[in-house]
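Homework-ish question, so no full write-ups if that breaks the rules, but can someone show me the predicted structure for this set?
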Amino acid sequence: MAIEYKKPIPIPSHESQPYWDGLRDRKLMMPCCDDCKHHWFPPSFLCPKCNSSKWTWTQLSGRGRIFSYVVYHRVYHPAFAGEVPYAVAVIELDEGPRMYSNVIGLPPDQLSCDMKVEIVYEPITNEITLPKFKPIAA
Amino acid sequence: MNTALRDKYAIVGTGKSRLGQVGANSLALLEEAMNNALKEAGLTNKDVDGVVVRGADDIYSHHQMMAQRLGVDASFSTSLDNGGASQILSIILAVMAIEAGLATTVVCGYGRDSWSRTHSKVGAGIAQNDLIPAAQRQKEHGPEFGHFGAVSQHAFGARRHMFEYGTKRDDFAQIAMAFREHALRNPEAQMKKPMTIDDYYKARLIVEPFGMFDCSLNSDGAGAVVVTSTERARSLKQKPVLIKGFATHNNTKGWIEEDHMLSTGAVESGERAFRMAGLGPKDVDTAQIYDCFTYMVLTQLEDYGFCKKGEGGAFVRSGALRMGGVLPTNTSGGQLSEAHVEGMLQIVEGARQLQGVYGPDRQVKDAEIALISGHGGNQVCHSTLILGRA
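A: Not a homework solution, just the prediction itself:
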């Protein structure tokens, strides 16, 4: 990176490390239960639906919809001072899990709930790639 | 839910500290409020054998520190961790402790010094968001996207509600303006100026759809109540306020999961509390609803059944929340305009409305039943308290 990256850099936990490894390889990986096929996020020890301990890191489609979104005007972290107003969204993936992300490629005032989106991989360090989303035709 | 406990316990004293831009630490503020509550009850520290508090996030065994300050040896004391739902929960726990024979008279309360800590004269003070201890902050799945704090979490709910039901910022404005109008009748309230719809829209945007006046205040302050059995209350100084019903419900799967941001734990908590009290929404004379943000009032009004889901906008536009309306709500000004003490002051206000202590401009006429709500704990913990005039 030519310019120093000043935004918060995620600190993976022992549970989330495979998720971040997947993103680095441009794959969206989440736990999927071997027994009930439930996908969930963030990762945890047991399937939260059936409490099975048998589950597998599985690649997701990277497609979903904007369940809800907000537009930040206030600067809570100095590294975002140049970005306000920016959108933070709750993305509902087609496979079910919901996650926070940014929606890029459209001005915040043109977003709407239920808009279809797909993942965009944004590397910020050699180790960490952020999953962001851009609108796609419905 | 146990109807046998209906009216068996009572609030026998309420107290507040100074509110607003006080300049004091949270322990001292809570001590002030607890002392006022005991005095109002006509009790001394010798009469108290229980302390239940929600500690400040960064104080360990907070209840012990409070009991030490008050000079109380407690047969039962503890600190809670349900965020803004903790304050009603402290009263529920007091009732449970007394019922179980662990204590006889319990003082409950919460104190907060976020204004002082963000306006410290020592150094520059810290940002409100940084009041959360570093160890408790998210390290992934949020901050990297510029996502911080409670404002935006609740704003997600507001946005989805607007999308599903056609709710407008105009509706949120009605809530903010009604509570501001109530605050003008309350000399203790932090906000002293009237608010017009123009003021609401001119205020800076924080996290859309919320502007500044959709957000609760940054306050110092504390509130406290004394709980004992109704039988014991008969020999005390004040006419007791009866605890008719209570419940909790926590949508612990998470705020962004299922429909939790549109339909809060107030649905289940309210239903059980009403059943315990043998009452329904139409019996409530005044509501004190946890108003961390305007939207949270709107959705809870629906969730409690004061109007149908999706009709909160029309309900607040009707003037229902104002003095003289069908449901005078947050009659002290609430957290949006009195002071933000995580729901503790709303318990005090509900009890005092039933004691009938106010002059005609602030007193809800013939108030017999008050409903109070608590909300917090990663946005999904909920508690309900229904009080009645003795």
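Now go work out the reasoning yourself. Hint: The helical segments of chain A are 17-24.
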